[in-house]
Amino acid sequence: MKDSVPEEHLYLGFSHQYQDSIFPLHTSISLFLLSYCDCKSFKIFLVPTNENANDQFVTKNLLGDLEIHLISKCQLPTVVQSCCLPAVVTKDGKFCRAGLSVVLRHIIQKTFEADPSKKNVLELLGFKKTCLKACAEVSQWTRLCEISIPLAVEGFLTASPEHCQTIPADILQLERKLGEPVRVHNDDKIRRQKLQQQKAGAKAAASLLEEEATEEGKAVEVHEHPLPSLELSVAFSKLRVQEVSHAVNREAPLIRRTKTSDLPPLDHVFAEGLYFTLADIVLLPCIHQFLVYSKKQGKDLVNLPLISSWYQRVQQVPGVKKAADKCNMQLLQLPELIPSPEEHREDFFPVPNDFEEEHEDSQFIGGPRPTMTKLMERGIEAKFSPHPCPDWTIDWTILPAAVNPGEGKMSRDRALRKQQQLNNLVAAVKKLAKPGDMIVDFCSGGGHVGIVLAHMMPSCQVALHACGVATDMVIEHCIKARAAFVISPCCYGFIQNTMKFKYPRSHQFKEILSYKEHMILCRFADQTAVHLPPERKLIGKQCMGLVDLDRAWAAEECNYSVQVTSMEPESCSPKNNMFVGTPV
User: Which of 466, 481, 471 is CA-nearest to residue 551?
Assistant: First the structure.
């Protein structure tokens, strides 16, 4: 383990203390993670909203072995003063990370850097290290964990008694989430193991019944002898760095031949599925406070069986109880509750209309044609403007090697397609730009667009392949700045309603399509891959055009002139649409 003086400062808000938590809950969550990780890489500051906060009272009761310093808002570094806490600042005060998920992910990474033996801490980031990586503006899951549930619990604790009779909608949403089938990497293999376990359990029960029934010819009562949950075995074997037994891994021929659609679904063990992640760390202090208050008020938790089971299960994770003790969190022991049938739970789980709409059946029966026909009947079809400069290309032979994407590690074919994409974007920008204009390269990725533009000209705002909702975020920023934009969207399938953006975007589309119908267009707009049949790709291209037409009309409602064109040649990318927008 590396011994070093803390190089970064962590700033946490402090409004008040309630029971065994510091509020806002974002602070309790941050302190709980620090305790769980046993992280000493930060100098920690509490920033009271009330200048009369008692330093000794706070630190003695709730901060465990963490060394905490209280400072006033006016003492915050300049780079933090306009940010929402929590925030982490480098020692020189020049770089700031702000927001709960960003800060928590950074704490995990710094802990692992300081002590690489703490692999269990790094595992909190989940598969491909993406847990809570997507921002709350575009990810409903991040928004639920990072914003909605902490605010819902804080509101529940401070509400008047008459307003505490109903369970907050966001808590109900989590209960429903825990009841959804789990999707994880390589889940086909685990689901086959579960099927084999179920058949083994059924066979053992039948054999036992036969033995008891033949014994002295007596009628016997049937007892179930369930095997331990495979999901639990998989989850806790990972936590304890063990392997699932070979007996479980061997599959019978009948199991191997079973269709994927006929395999049993996997049940949630933890918040994101089978494995303990940062999401569980975030949710535990919030749900703990909700359960403590509910129990104190004499409220029956029978209608939250999945949350109750999850709460008990999290306590079994090595290190959780120790971290809770450090933070003076007195975890509850709850009775095991049996989930009610879905139709009965509806009576207790009123769901907001917008949540119901977003979670309607998403199998898209009938494909995109009914939606496209509905638009055509109102005179709306995908339309593409002529390319502004179809024959213009960059002379790559005269550019420095460092500017050419072909000089990177990508294949020759991909480098050629990247050059063709850049030809389109740079041509559009050159037509719009004036000397002295500022370039903002949104969603820069490898920086190819920004590098070429920086070499060739100082102008405009441009984004290459702005993924999903990022396209709409870029357009919004440009509209606020009254700036021209050139955008090539991608990942239409990731488009969904978020805290900031609702779909459809334009008034014309809103009058005709529901959110679900718009989502159908988005999902099929992603089906333009090279290997797909020509007819499928044509429908995908039309869906892309309709989604982008909706965006273009929404921008035009803000006094912009927008053209949607296709890049030349279209083979340069399956996502070859390009926006060119200018303020009127």
Answer: 471
Whether the Cβ atoms of residue 73 and residue 147 lie closer than 8 Å to each other: no
Residue indicated by tokens 């005179």: 379
The whole-angstrom separation of Cα 326 and Cα 263 is 43
Tokens 């333009």 sit on residue = 528
Contacts of residues 149-158 at CB distance under 8 Å and 24 or more positions apart, as own/partner, are: 149/174, 149/283, 149/286, 149/287, 150/24, 150/25, 150/26, 150/29, 150/286, 153/25, 153/286, 153/287, 153/289, 153/290, 154/23, 154/24, 154/25, 156/290, 156/293, 157/18, 157/289, 157/290, 157/293
Lookup: tokens for 81: 């003063």
DSSP E strands, 458-574: 461-467, 485-490, 560-566
pLDDT of residue 551: 94
* Contact (CB, 8 A) for 292 and 332: yes
Q: How many whole angstroms separate alpha carbon 475 and alpha carbon 472?
A: 5
Give the model confidence (pLDDT) of 372-398 as tens digits. Answer: 888 888 888 888 888 777 777 888 787
Q: Which of helix, strand or coil describes residue 336?
A: coil
336-356 per-residue burial string, b: 16 or more CB within 10 A, e: under 16? ebebeeeeebeeebeeeeeee
